[in-house]
Recover the amino acids of this structure.
């Protein structure tokens, strides 16, 4: 194979991967998970720590 052909195939593979990731991230199945993740920084931080976090702090 010539180097130009290899570069073209690599470009095609990267383009297909990009379109696949883009389609996956914008699919309706992922919308609820991404919406929940986008609200995490706005969550209430005043909740008491759970038992596991207390054990880690005491150690």
């Amino acid at each position: 194979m010539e180097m130009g052909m290899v570069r073209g195939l690599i470009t095609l593979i990267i383009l297909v991967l990009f379109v696949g990731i883009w389609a996956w991230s914008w699919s309706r199945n992922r919308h609820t998970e991404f919406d929940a993740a986008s609200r995490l920084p706005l969550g209430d931080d005043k909740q008491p720590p759970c038992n596991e976090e207390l054990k880690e702090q005491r150690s």
Q: What stands out?
A: Helices lie at 3-25, 28-38, 51-58.
